[in-house]
Amino acid sequence: MMKINARGGLLTIFAFLMIATLPACAKKVQNAPKPPVLNETHLQLGIDVLAKSNFEAIKGKKIALLTNFSGRTSTGELSAELMAKSDYVRLMKIFTPEHGFYPAIPAGEKVNNSTLFGVPCVSLYGQNRKPTAEQMADIEAVVIDIQDVGVRSYTYISTMFNLLEACAESDIPAIVLDRPNPLGGTIVDGNVLELKHKSFIGIAPLTYLHGCTVGELAKMFAGEQWIKQSAKLNLQVIAMTGWRREMTWEDTGLMWFPTSPNIPTVNAVRGAAMLGTFGELGIFNIGIGSTLPFQYIGLATDLRDKVLANLDASSMAGISLSPCYFPSGKGKFYGFFLNFRDLRTIKPYTQGLKLILAFRAAYPKMFDITKVGGNAKAMFVKAVGSEELYNAIMKKASAEYVLKVASKGVEDFMKLRAKYLIYK
Q1: CB of 115 within 8 A of CB of 94?
Q2: What's the pLDDT tens digit per position in 137-164?
Q3: Does residue 297 fall inside a structural domain?
Q4: How far apart, in whole angstroms, are the C-alpha atoms of residue 57 and residue 327?
Q5: Number of domains in the chain
Q6: 231 is in which domain, residue-wise?
Q7: Element (H, E) at 268
Q8: Which end of the chain has fewer CB atoms at under 10 Å, N or C?
């Protein structure tokens, strides 16, 4: 029941009397339903569709849920809380990925087990990154509801890959609740990962920006038999309604919830797609430790004018580079702030590479292969999925050759992914 104070009550009575005297047509306008606060496009996520059915696909079954702070309904309710409190769901455990349920644990740090809403949380970034047979023994279906960022090296899709594999091995159905790719569904950019460089930051031969939803990726992992015993996998994708491939995140009307410590905003997703791999080299500062991670790039030396002189303006179409001086980590750096203007024309991976090549042209000595540590090289190669690309950049191959290597396999991947697309 609504509570109002005395002053509010008088105002309410006055407003009621005014409305009562309006013509019928005006009353209809006054009584028109208000649009939802967080989702003005009426897009329904996979979790919304499942909940609307009273959880028909999992009703009465013992469930494990892979999720974190980003797994929410279109109105912002945590999927884990919704399931934990539902009379229709028997939520036995919550699997959590890198960074933990609340994405505060830094990249690469172990995540411990915990409890949430009275349900055990089992870390898949602790003692093991794939559920053990024992961890799968007491469940009858796995539900996956987590927000990916559309970048191959982001480990949430690797965790999903491993979990799907565990489902196949244990004959347990897997249900993926789909949600948007924040980069949209049309941007496919960057070379396909070579399987010899497969790792937890590159689990499958995808382009660096794949333009798929998690549901589409799950279908691809199984359909291409990239996961072991994929023929045994009982996979269901509960699709979204109202999502189209050309939609930007802003078009969805959804609120962005941080997916990890350095992805606090959707523009950080775009910055990570553009600059994330190059942070592994240790040459640049890309804003990690600043208030706007992945939206800065700079050096301790001021080369801004030289970089701009070596950068064709058309190569940054849709992206603004604003010269700046920014604090990040333990120092201050000269560089650029990245802002994203035309979200439908950008190709972040290629444009990030062109920006790096402009830095290389401005100061070739910065790219000294003898000063890049073995661990930095290994991480970069894993992230980009190609040692050839590392050598092309660091050994001063022509810009044309670097860009050619960085687009290897894109056309073939586009043909492959067409078989698994759910949305137009």
Answers
A1: no
A2: 999 999 999 999 999 999 999 999 999 9
A3: yes
A4: 50
A5: 2
A6: 46-258+415-420
A7: helix 266-275
A8: N
